[in-house]
Design a protein that fits this description.
The protein is built from 3 helices and 3 strands, in the order E-E-E-H-H-H. It folds into 2 domains: 49 residues; 55 residues. The two termini are 39 Å apart. Helix content is 62%, strand content 15%. It is an alpha+beta fold and 114 residues long.
């Protein structure tokens, strides 16, 4: 949907919609406009959760994807060591180990909540 916001001569905001080719909202304060946009985002998020089966994935799929991504990162460093200094490789590996540990701890905590 195409739309834009304009500041009216009185300092308030109006919204023009190219769908209806007219003003759809007027005399909005900045806070009212922000709330309007927030409500639209909430509606879209609710719709995604309720109507889009491709939107929600299983947690095991996330774990698998995480593991594949970490493997790809390791392979990139291993296959292209000339692109990295020894310190960069060491730092990247240490960071990956740290991040994996943090992630695994979070997975444990989330699993206990279920």
């Amino acid at each position: 949907m195409g739309a834009f916001i304009a500041r009216q001569p009185n300092g308030l905001l109006c919204r023009w919609s190219s769908v209806v080719d007219n003003i759809t909202h007027y005399n909005m304060t900045e806070e009212e406009y922000i709330e309007y946009r927030a409500e639209k985002a909430r509606e879209e998020a609710r719709w995604e959760l309720e109507n889009n089966p491709r939107f929600i994935h299983s947690f095991s799929e996330i774990i698998k994807k995480r593991d594949e991504d970490l493997v790809q990162q390791c392979l990139g460093v291993i296959e292209n060591p000339e692109d990295y200094t020894a310190k960069e490789i060491e730092d990247a590996r240490a960071d990956m180990v740290r991040l994996q540990s943090v992630f695994d701890t979070l997975v444990e905590l989330m699993s206990k909540e279920d």
